[in-house]
Fold these 3 entries.
Entry 1:
Amino acid sequence: MAANNSDASGVIDSAKQTATQVAGQVKDQAGQVVEQVKGQATARADQQRETLASGFQSVAQAFHGLGTDLESREQSPVGQYAAQLGHAVGEQVENLANYLQSRDVRQVVRDLEDFARRSPAVFLGGAFLVGLAATRFLKSSRPAPDFTSNIPDPNRALPPANPEFSQRPEVWQRGATA
């Protein structure tokens, strides 16, 4: 009987070691997959950051062009003020584009978190405005609805509710005035 107990405990120990080894391998493989996914997500986020930065560069150039155009055309004080405003907005958008180009995604996220801690109201207000702008953009970029699908099928028209009502005009006139 003692031999059977030692054999059983040996099998149990062996099974425990095998389970521990398998669990360690699974954990290592899961860690590798997680790191790979993180790397891919970071690479895509960096591509989007670069695309966003180049888009902001284009917007900044448009504001600078607007300012230059207004300076050359408008001589009124309001026109000159609008030209200065165009250049100032262009400068700020250009600064944002340069900031995005000079940082990686992790730095941008870290800076956003710091800003949100320092100025939560401004951060939430900005997030709200960005959400509104994104909503407007998405609504304007979706295809126009197809109104022809809402036209009723004439073959499925309902018969008149009361035949007497539809045949005697004086009944509907009385019903309308009563």
Entry 2:
Amino acid sequence: MAVGQRIRQLREERGLTAERLAFESELGSKGYLSDIEHGRASPSLRTLHVIADYLEVLLLDLLTFPEDGERQRLIDRSRWLGPGTVRRLLRDMPAGPGQARGPSGPAKGGGYAAHAREPRKLVVAETVSIRTPRPPAASR
């Protein structure tokens, strides 16, 4: 349900209607998007990618819940930073244990991870679909 609420939040942030997101992103069904947003449907990983791509965010942004703590708020706010700012922050950020400066990997033993809440569980069903080309429009 949290993922659906996050999708709705990001959609509304961009001023998009559910109908526009559903049809222009190839989801094809406003009802399906509504079910996702209200926690009645579990989207596949492919569906999450389609939504993230249309919203012009990373898949990570659909799984970030700023209300859950400072670290997630920081991740959410980083969406608005330019690439140069991100590089500078990563360069200046203290390194984790056994790492060079730069992006931090999984913590070992201490740090934030040792005190973090249990992560939310996301169940993602993988589906395979075969995309067939649309027939050309008939000339009038």
Entry 3:
Amino acid sequence: MKRRMNKNCITIYPTESPSPVLWMLYKNRRVRVFLEDIIYLESQANYTIFYLKNGKNIINSRTMGLFENVLENESFFRVHRSFIVNLNYIDHVNIIKHTCGTIALSNGKEVILSRRKIKPFLEEFANCEEINPGVTVQITNHQIAA
């Protein structure tokens, strides 16, 4: 008997490898994505785009909120309404005190850190600092002129 995956089913399963696996539907097929392969997620209306370290993208027709709940106990953080980043792939962080910030990822992408997420992000990032010991966090009082 063939088992079908429910359309709304997004599940993380532990594996024997160090990284858990996220199973979801993509192009009417079940797709397995290791969490360690996800650099960041981006929201585009009611779709979520997964950017993987191999350069590929996976588009899912679920909202960012669903993935935020699924990934909340993993090393992911929602830094902006449109972005969830994997804390393992952060290269450096620039914060303009009390306004906003940017996060540079290992694939060269810079994502926005919203003003209201600065404090929770810094707390979460400090808790997992052993993951990225070489990451620099720069906090300035005013915007740097270009």
